[in-house]
Structure formats: structure tokens, C-alpha cells
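## Example record

The block below lists the input lines for one assembly entry, exactly as stored, with component labels intact.
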Amino acid sequence: MGPELSLNTITVKSLTLAQCIEACARHGIPGISPWRDVLQAMGVDAAAKHIRDAGLKVTGLCRGGMFNLPGAIDDNRRAIEEAHAIGADCLVMVCGGLPAGSKDLPAARDNVRDGLHAILPEARAAGVTIALEPLHPMTCADRSVLSTLGQALDLCDELGEGTGVAVDVYHVWWDPDLARQMARAKGRIAGFHVCDWKSPTTDLVFDRGLPGEGVIDIPAIRAMAEASGWTGGVEVEILSNHWWAQDPEAVLREIKARHAFC
Amino acid sequence: MGPELSLNTITVKSLTLAQCIEACARHGIPGISPWRDVLQAMGVDAAAKHIRDAGLKVTGLCRGGMFNLPGAIDDNRRAIEEAHAIGADCLVMVCGGLPAGSKDLPAARDNVRDGLHAILPEARAAGVTIALEPLHPMTCADRSVLSTLGQALDLCDELGEGTGVAVDVYHVWWDPDLARQMARAKGRIAGFHVCDWKSPTTDLVFDRGLPGEGVIDIPAIRAMAEASGWTGGVEVEILSNHWWAQDPEAVLREIKARHAFC
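Predicted C-alpha cells for the full assembly:
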């Protein structure tokens, strides 16, 4: 049983990790999922201690992946160490887009598969679940050639033990095959992220809505996750130029208030 | 055997249909695919005569669909009449997004199915192929709840005679299941549209690239289409604030020059 609510730190990206930890405790948010930049800025050991002292559950570390970039394997191994150090439930994988100048999507997907095979032994040894996160197809060129839940589960089938999927409703809500794939994910959901699809959406990356601001039937997708054994509540991950411009305290209050929309 | 190259009129949307017809003839572009607004502005009968006199093949009429809007069925019936009048190979269907205020995606999809069943008798009687065009998942909320080629083919399976698919590389290039679905589309491809995915893309609708400007391996997808029996060449459909701001003559020259990227 995971925490009912977790804060992905990018949601309030003007805050340091220390401030996020303190804010979670103060607002009664029992879970946290840091990004690596704020984790490294605080220092991994200090962060691990503060998070433990605050009694927060670490629902994930964002993020490994980006296998299209040079040095990706070594960087993913460091991410696995960091995830282990802070006791994260999983390392969320944003697998990377096309290499610069390439139009070869099948090759990019093969490269992701190879990269995952390369890092999996370290992940298993560290007890860190590799959570494959399919990203919305509009990010295929520059962020993730892993685009659907079905594709992620195919990879899990191949990779086996120590892998799972991170389901973000923003990335999967449109999928006509969603119900079937969510059932197929039984026992393999390693993270459940929420935000909302605003209509219209004005930016391909930084215009996500808080739960209830958009058109996603979040409770319906959450019910699918729970039918597949997920008990970890929701992690709120909002990349939004609009919300980033607001007072973080107000954003945290909104997140608490909008929990009813999840 | 269709024309090797066809101009979708929205690519040069500052031109009237009469100007588009004249430009196709002058630039040696043997096919045309008008949008309904420019067709209606010219008058359907006058347009039909001018297109015939210019010796152009009509590769499609854009567009029917939008079943989420009031009056959609009657409007689609008018579109079928127009497609018949200009001898269009097909009526391209952009099926519509969620109804205003709705989060019920399954219901919106059922409504699309019902709408297609309603208009199919008229389409068959008129000899107009209904070309279901899956649109990129980023348009699911506001333009098309039909998001994948597999989903479109499932509908074709159900609807039967008189239906097919319009494949636009922009909408399908990211799909991990593309090769399988393109093979499944054998004999059912009713249109093949090209443009390119720019990386980064700055607008969800109006930032498409000309062939070669982006990351899509267009020849690879075209080869899949031809392996499935498609002989109709490529229809160039570019929705782009950038290209719309250029001299249409320059855009037409670019289209001719970039045909090698298809």
C-alpha cells in the first residue's frame, strides 16, 4: 500500500528539494518523487536522510533513460545508485527520442531495448524497479520513442524481472487500446502519475493541467490501475509554464484540493 | 493508378480554388484535393467544370466527420454530394473530438461509429469512398477521437464496403504497430498524405513541415503503402503558419522540389 498522494518535485520546480520535503510534511502529502537535478543539488545522502526523517515515501526517481544521448548507460547506472540511496520505489525511464539527425525510428527503439538490457543487472542488484514510462506520441521525436503502454509491456515481457510500467494518464488517456493494456499490466504497474489534458493545449511539453482542468477521465483510468493491483495512490506531476509562474504554496493547496478529481 | 503528386489546397490557403487549379496546371501538379470552404466559395458546379477542364485528378475532398458537432449527419451528407459532384476519389473523414464539456471518450467513439453508419448508405449510393483518417493522438480532445490506423481499420472491418483509410504520415509515423497495420490495410488505402514532423514542433496543429524538413522517414511509409497496393502517389497537405506566410508560388516550387523526399 503506497501513499495516497505523492508530489513529483517538478510540479513546484522553483523549490529546492529541502523545501519540497518540508512542504510535503506541512501540507500532509505523504509521498515524494524527486527529479535528479534537485536531488543532486541537495546531495543524495543528505536528501535520503531528510526524506526518511520526514517520514515520506519515495514513489519514484525521475528519471533514467534518454538512451539516444552519449554516455546514457553510465548515467543510468548512476541513476540506479541514486534511486537505491533514497529508497525510491522505482526509477522512471523516459527512454529518449531519435538521435540527432536520424529518421530511423526502428533503430532508436532497438537502441532503447539494448540500453535497458545493459542496465538491468545493476537495477536488479540494487533492488530498483525499472519503470518504463510510455510518453505521449507527440514526444516521439525528442523525448521518447516508447509511445504506448502496449509497447512498454512488450518490453517488460522481454526484459522480465525487475521491470514494470509507469502509467501517466496524460500520456495514455487517448489510447484506443488502453483498457486492454491496463488489464495486461496486472501486477506490473510501478507508478501512477496524474495531471490533465487541457483543451486547447498550447505547448507540447509545458502546458499540462492540474487534475480537473482538462478532459481526462482520471478516475476511470485509476480504476483500471487498481483493478490491476495498483495500491499506490497518485503522484502529481505537472509540467506547466502557467503553474510554475504561481506561488508554490498556492499550487500545493490546489493539488490537495484537486485530489478529489483523481 | 493515381497522380504522382496532388496538392491539398490548405497548403496554399491564401489562394482561391480557381487559383489553385490554375497553379496545379502551371506547375505540372496533376492532382488536387480541395477543402470544402474553398470549394463552396467557388461553387461546386463551376469547380467541377474547371477541375475537369484542367485535366486534374481529384484525390480527395477535405473533409467530412466532426460527429461531435450538432448537425453533423446532414453536413456529412452534403459533403458526400460535393465529393460526388467533383469526382473525388474519397471523402476524407476527420471524425471529431470530445463533445464540449465531455470526458467520455468511449461515448465519443461510439458516436463516431453511429455517425458513419448513418451516412454510409448515401456514400455508397454516390460511389464516394469514406476515407477514415486517424489523426495524431495530440488531437484527440478537439479534432479526432480516431487516433490510430489499427482503430480506423477496425472501423472499416465493421462498416464494410465503401470505406477505407486515409494515411497521413504526420499522424501515424510514431506508431509502434505501424508496419503491421499498414500490411493489414492492403487494398483499403484511399489516400496517402505527406508532410513532416519538425523537431521541435511549436504548435499542435499549425507547425507541420514540408517533406524533408523533419524526422519522418516518408519513403519507408510510402513503401509500406505501395506494398499494400497503393498506386496513388502523394498528396501534399501542409498546415503551417510558417509556410502560409510565404509566397504561394515559392511554396509550390518547394513542393515540386521536395517531392524527392517522398
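Chain A has a mean pLDDT of 97. Residues 5-193+215-235 of chain A form a domain with the TIM Barrel fold (CATH 3.20.20.150).
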